[in-house]
Amino acid sequence: MQLLTDEIKRKMISRVFIFFSCLFVLGGCMYNDEPMPEIVHSPSSESRIIPPPVIKPKQGWGSAYKNIPGNWLPPLQLEKKWVAVVIHHSATEKGNAAIFDKLHKEQNHWEGVGYDFVIGNGTDSGDGQVEVTFRWRKQIPGAHCGGTSGNWANKDGIGICLVGNFCYRVPTARQMQSLLKLVRFLQKRYGIPRSRIYGHNTTPGARVTACPGKKFPMSRLKSMLNF
């Protein structure tokens, strides 16, 4: 009799778990996206990346972040979970965050620059200079990788743009040094593996694009990353 009772209890617990799991999956999350980039695919659970837990130091940032610029650290009260990094090139010879901000406002009618970070090439900002945009400071979705199912790459992926056109030339050495340092920081902070470091053109679900250019050294970058 005791075995029968235990079996009934296990079945009841299993049914309750399944019921609430279904509610969680169907509930989803709502975001207030900008009108562009347009989402052209239907949401699919197969292409949705499940955010990993974020582990934070109990007191401050600790010595592991002592060499990280202060503006790379998002406000703790706003910080969200990020699951991937998407690397872009500007496809222009010149530019900086302010120029792209103006361009994206006027031409695309976005709230502002679509990226979280912009890394200069020595033209309109310093060679290797990392500019932090309002999107990272506010921890809000980007506007850098449209067409992904559920718009996941904008909502959950960190957009980094290097100034330059890497269809024709490689990034500068200082740009790559800064990118490596930034990506390593983001990996450590959010537990992002190398398999989730994408070029725009290899991002799951993204529209067809050459970005970040055939001369961008993605394989070399990944070989130098942590995990």
Structure in words:
The protein is of the alpha/beta class and 227 residues long. The protein has a single domain, classed as Lysozyme-like, CATH 3.40.80.10. The protein is 32% helix and 11% strand. It is built from six helices and five strands; from the N terminus they run αβαββααβαβα. It has helices at residues 2-27, 97-108, 134-138, 152-156, 173-190, 218-223; strands at 84-89, 117-121, 127-132, 157-162, 197-199. A five-stranded mixed beta sheet has the order 3-2-4-1-5. Strand 2 and strand 3 (127-132) form a beta hairpin. The protein is globular and about 35 Å long. The relative contact order is 0.17.
Short description:
The chain is an alpha/beta fold.
Describe this protein with a few key phrases.
227 residues, alpha/beta, Lysozyme-like, 5-stranded mixed sheet, 6 helices, globular
Average per-residue pLDDT, rounded, comes to 80
What structural category characterises the helix and strand content? alpha/beta
H-E order:
HEHEEHHEHEH
What name is given to the CATH topology? Answer: Lysozyme-like
Strand tally: 5
What percentage of the residues does DSSP assign to strands (E)? 5-15%
Give the CATH architecture: 3-Layer(aba) Sandwich
CATH homologous superfamily grouping: Peptidoglycan recognition protein-like
- Quickly count the domains: 1
Number of helices: 6
Bin the helical content.
25-40%
Question: How would you sum up the major sheet?
Answer: 5 strands, mixed
Shape: globular
Q: Alpha-carbon distance between the termini?
A: 52 Å
- The spatial strand order of the largest sheet comes to 3-2-4-1-5
Highest-level CATH class = Alpha Beta
Which residues form runs of ≥5 with pLDDT under 50?
A: 16-63
- The value of Rg in angstroms is 20 Å
